[in-house]
Amino acid sequence: MLITLKNILDIAESKNMAVAAFNVTSLEGILAAIEAAQEEDTPVILQFANIAHGKYIPLETIGKVMVMTADESKVPVCVHLDHGDNFDEIKRALDLGFTSVMYDGSALPFSENVANTRYVTSLANEYGASIEAELGAMGAEGDNENILGEYTDPKAAKLFVGETGIDALAASFGTVHGIYKSEPKLDFERIKKIRESTGIPVVMHGGSGISDADFRKCIDCGVRKINFYTYAAKYAGDAVRQMVESTSGNIYSHDILVSLRQSMIKTYKDAIRIFKNR
Questions:
Q1: What is the 3-state secondary structure (H, E, C) of 137-170?
Q2: Is the overall model pTM greater than 0.85, yes or no?
Q3: Which helix (H) or strand (E) covers residue 185, if one does?
Q4: 270 catalytic per annotation
Q5: CA 176 to CA 103: how far, in whole Å?
Q6: Residues 256-269, mean pLDDT to the nearest whole number
Q7: Helices (DSSP H) in the chain: which residue ranges?
Q8: Which tops the pLDDT comparison, 275 or 207?
Q9: pLDDT score of 184
Q10: Which of 103, 127, 215, 241 has the maximum number of C-beta atoms within 10 A of its C-beta?
Q11: pLDDT, tens digit (0-9, with 9 covering 90-100), for 113-159
Q12: Active-site residue among 10, 41, 71, 82?
């Protein structure tokens, strides 16, 4: 069942949980995310970060499969463009049937971020889609020290949301994209203030590597969408390495794909269970 981000976050709000947003880069990732969500009977978000993963597969190719698979799912699924940073890319995703887009103008001056986000909001509205935007800054994907960008200011967030009409806000409160080299220090009080000041769901980027307890604290403070990719990809790579090392005969590509998918299903189910916050 294909639904919008706003609708899926309404479900999360009603259950005091967060919806897992899994970045996918292949058919195996798509199928693993859907299978995990269906086995857990829980809504899920399929998302594609063209800015980071377009070099692996074109948006137009994977996007069509994401939309088709989501539409056929037995659980509610939102198909979302992650970190869209230009209008053309965002329109291409909407034309493909994505039910949500993120405009990332976090590196721009506040006024320019507002103006661009407002335009994307109007564009998404024409398609009946939802919009996420970002205020504040986080480290780039990859191996990171726990050196954080600019934290999101709750007062600025209130103004930003009021000016743009977005459905969800990606905020900076102590996470980074990629693999942590030191324990992250999350500002839970900041999450509460952002949620209270804006009145809309808060999105956590850089969700891999956070402890179960901290995930639950973030959810209780108002996080309703958690982006999760790096550790799922890492664990799947580890599973392939183990398979190769334990196999004396021929290794076939289809067996590698099965190993990847099985690993991702397990990782995704584990994440979904934590994000249910029960």
A1: CCCCCCEECCCCCCCCCHHHHHHHHHHHCCCEEE
A2: yes
A3: none
A4: no
A5: 18
A6: 96
A7: 5-14, 27-40, 50-53, 59-72, 87-96, 110-127, 154-164, 188-198, 212-221, 230-246, 253-275
A8: 275
A9: 67
A10: 103
A11: 999 999 999 999 999 999 999 998 665 544 344 334 478 999 999 99
A12: 82
